[in-house]
Specification:
By secondary structure, this protein is an alpha/beta fold. The chain contains 8 helices and 7 strands; from the N terminus they run H-E-H-E-H-E-H-H-H-E-H-E-E-H-E. A 7-stranded parallel beta sheet has the order 1-2-3-4-5-6-7. Helix 3 crosses helix 5 (132-146).
């Protein structure tokens, strides 16, 4: 006769045999080809104001649509400074031209806001923004969005676009007066990006020299409207030499280019303060207060 203790013991052994010791992963590895990483919409203060970026990770490919995120600025009635998608790059080769045109159409439909677009791929962005084919694609998207009732456009804006659509060239001026274009330069090796930026049609052209990792003797600031400079922060930060910043500052002063010195950097962003030779530099381009058309 088998005891109840023996039956329970064998039952536990059989159950244990059916359960794998190592559980399989609950999520398959991502196969997304998007250059962006998962982000959430944030209005964290920065030199440029709020951030505009997708709420979820998606593949930027033909047919990709994150309508709620892309069209979110159209819901904001009060003017804002909007930093466009800081966690990815609208100029990246994997971002379809159709998506870039849709983003610029959205910015054209929100002239009350000031959009700041930062890219490490100014060469591609220059080719697009100089192309009449791309400009026509922006106008086409602008007209299409105005006819889509699911797009959160105010009725006066929707009606105004429909009226102006009759005159193709009246849809909006180009370059868009409420869109600033900038590029990143971390060291002298990338100063060529400023040359590409100079050729981009833009209301305001700006440079982001952060984190600044070395001197930039090749940097030339003609036809640049704004320069942002900052040191690196974090446990493995590389130290900023203020002599590098002084060289940039002197050139900005000589050419009357607005300078924003964001931080010296250090273990934390506030570790080294924001002073350069006893003062802060919080300048903005002269057109910073001119928003809308």
């Amino acid at each position: 006769m088998t005891s109840s203790h023996g039956r329970k013991s064998r039952a536990r052994e059989r159950a244990a045999a059916r359960v794998p010791r190592t559980l399989p992963p609950t999520r398959a590895p991502s196969t997304s080809t998007t250059p962006a990483r998962p982000t959430r919409t944030s209005s964290r203060p920065s030199p440029s104001g709020g951030e505009w970026k997708p709420r979820r990770t998606c593949e930027l490919r033909p047919g990709w649509s994150a309508r709620a995120a892309l069209f979110e600025p159209l819901r904001w009635r009060r003017p804002r400074k909007v930093f466009v998608n800081s966690m990815s790059d609208i100029g990246h080769a994997r971002v379809p031209t159709e998506f870039v045109a849709r983003a610029f159409a959205t910015m054209a439909l929100a002239p009350q806001h000031q959009f700041q677009v930062l890219t490490k791929k100014p060469r591609r962005l220059r080719r697009l923004l100089e192309s009449q084919k791309f400009v026509d694609a922006v106008w086409t998207e602008m007209e299409r969005l105005s006819e889509d009732d699911a797009v959160p456009l105010a009725r006066p804006v929707r009606e105004d676009v429909r009226k102006r659509a009759a005159n193709w060239n009246a849809l909006s001026s180009w370059p868009l007066p409420n869109v600033w274009i900038g590029t990143s330069i971390e060291s002298d090796e990338y100063c060529w990006r400023a040359d590409e930026l100079r050729g981009i049609p833009a209301a305001v052209r700006f440079l982001s020299l952060e984190p600044l990792l070395g001197p930039v003797p090749s940097l030339e600031l003609s036809r640049i409207d704004w320069v942002i400079v900052g040191g690196e922060s974090g446990p493995a930060h590389r130290a900023l030499d203020l002599a590098w910043v002084r060289d940039i500052r002197d050139q900005c002063v000589d050419l009357r280019v607005a300078l924003f010195f964001k931080q010296v950097g250090g273990l934390t962003s506030k570790a080294g303060c924001r002073l350069l030779d006893g003062r802060t530099w919080d300048e903005y381009p002269a057109t910073a207060d001119v928003v809308g058309v």
